[in-house]
Design a protein that fits this description.
By secondary structure, this protein is an alpha+beta fold. The chain is built from five helices and eight strands, in the order βααβββββββααα. The chain has two domains: 90 residues, Hypothetical protein yqbg, CATH 1.10.3230; 79 residues, no CATH class. The radius of gyration is 19 Å and the shape is elongated.
Length: 192
């Protein structure tokens, strides 16, 4: 089970956004270019919130998730899916040297890295006690907006519109409008 010292760090952010300022402005019936900077901020906040709510990256990007040795079992759950590929798994040893885990020693299934213990594979030993293992991976539906399921895009647009229309209710709150939640429920990753 990941602990507080496990985190996901974006290395490469997507160039394309999951929704556009124009889509939000259409939703709120705004056609002036005066507020484009504010709409861009709402777009970014909405995308981030939707990604956190469903546990998935919308547009593909490279992430790094770090694990401490006490967290290492045969299966490492990756927090942001859908995982397209594993780029590398690198252990940092106590003397700050690194060792790369051979890709023949693990496989990816259901957004988890599984160590092939049945082949005698083991994680690097004598790792740093905190964040000693780094998994670099590509997460997201695809590289274009068209690859994102339409209900997720719709939810992000509606949430940005709600923050614009009712800033006192949604800007400083973790609450999402019921309509947005209904759209996201089928895509939510449930962690047990």
């Amino acid at each position: 089970m990941p602990t507080l010292d496990t985190y996901t760090l974006p290395i490469l952010s997507p160039v394309v956004t999951a929704i556009t300022v124009a889509e939000i402005k259409t939703e709120v019936r705004q056609d002036s270019a005066d507020d484009d900077t504010a709409f861009a901020s709402l777009r970014d906040a909405s995308i981030w919130t939707v990604e956190q709510e469903i546990g998935k990256s919308l547009i593909q990007r490279t992430l790094v998730m770090r694990f401490s040795p006490n967290e290492l079992g045969g299966v490492l759950p990756l927090w942001m899916g859908p995982v397209a590929s594993i780029t590398s798994i690198v252990g940092t040893l106590r003397d700050d040297t690194t060792t790369t885990v051979d890709s023949d020693n693990y496989y990816l299934t259901d957004d988890q890295v599984v160590l092939k213990t049945y082949n005698g594979a083991v994680w690097p030993s004598v790792m740093r006690p905190v964040n000693g293992l780094a998994v670099t991976y590509v997460s997201g539906y695809g590289v274009t907006q068209a690859s994102i399921p339409h209900p997720i895009q719709e939810a992000a647009i509606k949430y940005a519109a709600a923050m614009y229309d009712e800033p006192d209710k949604y800007l400083d709150s973790a609450d999402l409008p019921a309509e947005v939640l209904r759209l996201l429920v089928p895509f939510r990753r449930w962690r047990i």
